Amino acid sequence: MNEVVHTSPTIGSNVEEIVVKNTHFLMWDIGGQESLRSSWNTYYSNTEFIILVVDSIDRERLSITKEELYRMLAHEVWWGIEIIVFFCSKQSNNITCFLC
């Protein structure tokens, strides 16, 4: 924590264990390319929360993101999941992210 990490879009998936105050998180970073979206549901088992990160400067993809989020949340495995964290990245141009 408290370190700057430079990233690039995920191609495929990455997994990393993160420990915060003696709590272990197994974090899956799953790419959002159209060819990968059909496999997202293979990662749903034993998931306790979702962190969705969106490039809010890419206005053309916001509607696609909204559709995919609704499609994902319609899956029965999410029924009863209470925590979803939504982040909009690249806010430096004073662009507000409205997904809903």
Automatic annotation (TrEMBL):
Keyword Metal-binding: yes
Binding site for Mg(2+): T10
List of residues binding GTP: G32
PROSITE patterns in alphabetical order: ARF (PS51417)
Pfam families with a match to the protein in the record: Arf (PF00025)
Domain of life: Eukaryota
MF (Gene Ontology): GTP binding; GTPase activity; metal ion binding
Keywords, sorted A to Z: GTP-binding, Magnesium, Metal-binding, Nucleotide-binding
Name of protein: ADP ribosylation factor like GTPase 5B
